[in-house]
Amino acid sequence: MPKLYYWPATCSITVRVILEETGLSYEDEAVDLGAKKQQSPEFLKVNPKAKVPAYLRDDGSLITEVPAIALWLALTNPDANLLASDYETRVRTLEIFDYIAGTIHMQGAARAWRPGSFSETEAAHDAIRARGKDIVMRGLDILSQTLGDKDWLTGSYSIADASLFFIEYWAREKVGYQMPANIEAHYHRMLGRPAVQRALAREGLVVPAF
Question: Sign (positive/negative) of CA torsion 173, 178, 181, 182?
Fold first, then answer.
């Protein structure tokens, strides 16, 4: 059976939401990032990159990196309708996904949440956090324009929406950022999806009340 290596409320929840949308059966294993278990010899044998998520397939091969795992799950589970069939929408979906993963998350949220990863000088951490917030908020403003008055980022629900959900959850529930109104509404729609509710429950997270 496939296995997801994860840690709650990290970007691995994007993959879990997608897994729940597909209806696939899978096992999971928590990798305690706070205790630096990603650096343990046991986990490094699984993923030498020392990061989650990592997805172990039925054939014993491993996929790492959120966009790659998400794309593989969408392509191999077409009935879940997580990736449009036309090339233009597919390209736009991956464009959005990469912007969320590569810029909003890795350049913005990472600075705001873990400034020590960017400087060992504690006096610099407030400035790093502020820069991270600026990147996240600018990113959400850009995605707000992309979303417009649509329910979903590309017009129909896709892996891009699952990726945005991670940022929304982190921004609202972890650091209390004020999101654009239509992004907040998107977050509410995501929380209403049974797959998202199952994903949160499986990670021991409470579905936020509004």
Answer: negative
What is the end-to-end Cα distance of the chain in Å, rounded?
A: 36
| Structure tokens given for 84 | 């449009």
Neighbours of 57 (CB within 10 A): 15
Choose the CATH number for 3-80 among 1.10.10.10, 3.40.30.10, 2.60.40.1240, 3.30.460.80.
Answer: 3.40.30.10
What's the topology of domain 87-193? Glutathione S-transferase Yfyf (Class Pi); Chain A, domain 2 (1.20.1050)
43: enclosing H helix or E strand: helix 41-46
pLDDT tens, 98-125?
999 999 999 999 999 999 999 999 999 9
The pLDDT, as a whole number, for residue 210 is 67
Spatial distance between the Cα atoms of 154 and 39, rounded to a whole number of angstroms: 37
CB atoms within 10 A of CB 75: 11
Domain limits, CATH 3.40.30.10, in the chain: 3-80
